[in-house]
Amino acid sequence: MADTVLNSPNIKKLSAKDFRSDQENRWCPGCGDHGILNSVQKALADMEIKKEDYAVISGIGCSSRFPYYMDTYGFHTIHGRAAAIASGVKCANPDLEVIQVSGDGDALAIGGNHFIHAVRRNIDMTILLFNNEIYGLTKGQYSPTSNQGMVTKTSPFGTIEEPFKPAQLALGAQSKFYARSIDTSIKLTTEVVKSASAHKGTSIVEILQNCVIYNDGTHALVTDKATKDDYQLILEQDKPMIFGIEKNKGLILGGNGKLIVVTIGEHGITEADVLVHDAHTENPHMHWLLSSMMAPEYPVALGVIRDVASPSYDEKMVQQIKDVQALSSIKNMDDLLNSGDTWVVE
What we know:
Protein name: 2-oxoacid:ferredoxin oxidoreductase subunit beta
GO biological process, one term: cellular respiration
CATH topology of one domain: Rossmann fold
Number of strands: 11
Organism: Ancylomarina euxinus
Structural class: alpha/beta
Radius of gyration: 22 Å
Helix content: 25-40%
Cofactor: [4Fe-4S] cluster
Largest sheet: 8 strands, mixed
Distance between the termini: 49 Å
Strand content: 15-25%
Keywords: Oxidoreductase
């Protein structure tokens, strides 16, 4: 998180409008990216960081037009390399609040190697992963998160590949912060982005996003008004994991180590039996189980799933430089160039 905060009474508080650029928005009408953009602009206004201290970095894809629509510093980079460039931005200027925006194809296919190593290094930046389970910009090819059997232009008989579950990939790379939201919930996405920014280290926010053209309704059970209450589990720290249209369903841990959906009031189950969420526990087992739940067998876990404190790469890098400088006669580039034998050419 950027250290420069708007704490002076003489500085005008920013609003979401202050982060809207003058660029024409070219996303399709009805695209989930519109809602995500609104959420992020609201979050940035609430975080009270100087506007000039934000840097929005993207790769290639529909989601990666994001920097054009943000009135901040930004960089629309190359396919799959957003994490690498965002890492460089943060290490070159650790005071910046760096936000990387990528789609499931950009981040997990060509950019998969950069993604896992950014997570492993725990560089202090926020990765917004738009997951619509399709390649949209290139007109509808299956992506690393497309469901097995999905028929697309590149899988006319149905894809035979097992899809990535982004949370499992991140947790396997030792992720310290993982959250999930949906494009239709401005409020939840705004709060999750703020939580991600407050976390020191690589914060991943997976956003289930709808592509109205090539994969419309892929998250329908989780987002449709008629079903969403039964398929959304919105996690809150130290609160029981209760969901359902009547708020009478919950999760317990079975003897086989699997999560079980129960109904409060049936078979002697009470609210006291329901699991309580703890995003801060270091053991990732429960976070793995929660992030792996899929509809219709389970509700989909939303909100902050994992949030564990750990020193960030850039913090350790800055401290290491200071430690080395303290023991060396050479403190900077000028000292290096003027050390040893030098000559003056006249």
